[in-house]
């Protein structure tokens, strides 16, 4: 994949971590859940990109 997609996925993971921590500190379950979803989906996208790159070679 392109470098743009790689950075976009990493930013999504980072955004998820930040959102989840804000949710924890404010005891806001909705923010915690949104952060967890962002973090997980970004991580899955990164894993998919790594698998694609591995099979291209």
Topology record:
Elements lengths: L2 H24 L2 H28 L1
Residue-averaged pLDDT = 92
Oligomer: single chain
By helix and strand content, what is the structural category? mainly alpha
Would you report the number of β strands? 0
Main sheet specs: none
Number of helices: 2
Helix content: over 70%
How would the global form be characterised?
elongated
Question: Poorly predicted ranges (pLDDT <50, ≥5 residues)?
Answer: none
Q: What distance separates the N and C termini?
A: 13 Å
Order of helices and strands: HH
Radius of gyration: 13 Å
User: Approximately how much beta-strand content do the residues carry?
Assistant: under 5%
How would you summarize what this structure contains?
The chain has 57 residues and is mostly helical.
Give structural notes.
α1 (3-26) packs antiparallel against α2. This protein is 91% helix and 0% strand. It is mostly helical and 57 residues long. The protein starts with a helix and ends with a helix.
């Amino acid at each position: 994949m392109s470098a743009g997609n790689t950075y976009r996925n990493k930013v999504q993971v980072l955004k998820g971590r930040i959102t989840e921590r804000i949710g924890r500190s404010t005891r806001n379950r909705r923010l915690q859940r949104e952060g967890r979803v962002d973090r997980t989906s970004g991580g899955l996208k990164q894993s998919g990109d790594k698998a694609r790159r591995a099979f291209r070679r």
